[in-house]
Design goal:
Blueprint (H helix, E strand, L loop, with lengths): L5 H28 L7 H6 L18 H12 L3 H21 L2 H12 L5 E4 L15 E5 L2 E12 L6 E7 L9 E7 L5 E6 L10 E12 L3 E2 L5 H37 L1 E2 L2 E2 L4 H29 L5 H26 L10 H8 L9 H13 L1
Parallel strand pairs: 1-4
Antiparallel strand pairs: 2-3, 3-7, 4-5, 5-8, 6-7, 9-10
Length: 378
């Protein structure tokens, strides 16, 4: 199915087995307790998930983009928290280092990221710089062999647990977006600290924090790409990241659909299962249609990426449709469950809360429409 190779199917099945046996039992608890799933991290590392697309020469598994997307989908089907932890680590930290880093940077950082010893994060968002990545105010000033960074980043996923951060800062304000630079920053660098932790509507087990840079000393050799090339790094990173967020949306929607189907078969009203009602059947049919369309868009974008073809518009389409699908399908799943679906006795209310963020982070739905339109009109 879907033209997947034997290796890809093996990885998909491995991820599903892990999700069912080791993630599902804790998914509700970490959500209720707003607790980072530290107990899952060693097993994810053992399975090679943290380095799935990192080449073997840097300690990774050397897998392809589609295999990685399949893993994100399977994790999100059970726990969006686990999916986003891996997605941010891989798509917005390890992958940019692989794509834009020097050989020295790859050799220094990728082995730790790939084996799961070090968790990665991406720090671009500020109070005045969300969808507008060019609105950065964090400043980086050259001082000898180092840069001194000052500023505050917000909404940083994996913030309290990551060891390596990709941080965007302004190195030349007069040049606009051409004055932005991306730095590889370690949590132990002088002047780096983690600020407040956000309490969120959904993905409650993931860590979302402020990052505070106060005279943070970063070696000049830790520039990722080149000085003034930060915007290029960020846009390339977000393009790829959108595919994994789309996969998260697909997984969420699939999990909600399966829960709705199971409940509709079991719930008896007026002497028969509610699945016998045409109104419920049509809801389920529409949900399945949306999920399948989102999945195909996502797989297509992943394949374009791994074939080194232009995938920017397809990634935006996949993320936009997956975000809308995740929201629509999870809302319908709660509706099918009725009153019990509004309680925490069933996972569909968690799926619905988790789904909302898909249309916000790594580019809102509105930004995806802008990206698509620009490609159409160029």
């Amino acid at each position: 199915m879907y033209g997947l190779t034997e290796d890809q199917l093996l990885i998909k099945n491995m991820a599903r087995e892990f999700a069912e046996n080791e993630v599902r039992p804790i998914a509700s608890a970490i959500d209720k307790e707003h607790r980072f799933p530290v107990e899952s991290m060693p097993r994810m590392a053992e399975l090679g998930l943290f380095g799935l697309t990192v080449p073997e020469e840097f300690g990774g598994s050397g897998g392809d983009v589609t295999s990685y997307i399949l893993v994100i989908e399977e994790l999100a089907r059970v726990s969006a928290t686990h999916a986003v932890i891996l997605s941010v680590h891989m798509s917005t930290c390890a992958q940019p280092v692989l794509q834009f880093g020097t050989e020295a940077q790859k050799n220094k950082y990728l082995p730790g990221l790939a084996c799961g010893k070090t968790l990665g994060a991406f720090a671009i968002t500020e109070a005045g710089a969300g969808s507008d990545a060019s609105g950065q105010t964090t400043a980086a000033v050259r001082k000898g062999d180092n840069y001194i960074l000052n500023g505050t980043k917000i909404f940083i996923t994996n913030g309290a647990y990551a060891g390596v951060f990709l941080v965007m800062a302004v190195t030349d304000k007069s040049k606009g977006v051409k004055g932005l630079t991306t730095f590889i920053v370690e949590k132990d660098f002088p002047g780096f600290s983690v600020g407040q932790t956000e309490e969120k509507m959904g993905i409650c087990g993931s860590s979302t924090t402020e990052i505070i840079l106060k005279d943070c000393v970063v070696p000049a050799e830790n520039i990722l790409g080149e000085e003034g090339g930060g915007f290029k790094v960020a846009m390339g990173t977000l393009d790829g990241g959108r595919i994994s967020i789309a996969a998260e949306g697909v997984g969420l929607a699939q999990g909600a659909l399966e829960a709705a189907v199971d409940y509709a078969k079991q719930r008896v009203q007026f002497g028969r299962p509610i699945a016998a009602n045409q109104g419920i059947q049509w809801m389920l049919a529409d949900m399945a249609l949306e999920v399948e369309a989102a999945r195909l868009l996502t797989y297509n974008a992943a394949r374009l990426k791994e074939q080194h073809l232009n995938y920017s518009m397809q990634a935006a389409m996949a993320k936009l449709h997956a975000a809308q699908t995740a929201m629509d399908v999870t809302v319908k799943a709660v509706q099918i469950h009725g009153g019990i679906g509004y309680t925490k006795n069933y996972p569909v209310e968690r799926y619905m809360r988790d789904a909302k963020i898909i249309g916000i982070y790594e580019g809102t739905n509105e930004v995806q429409r802008i990206v698509i339109a620009k490609h159409l009109l160029s």
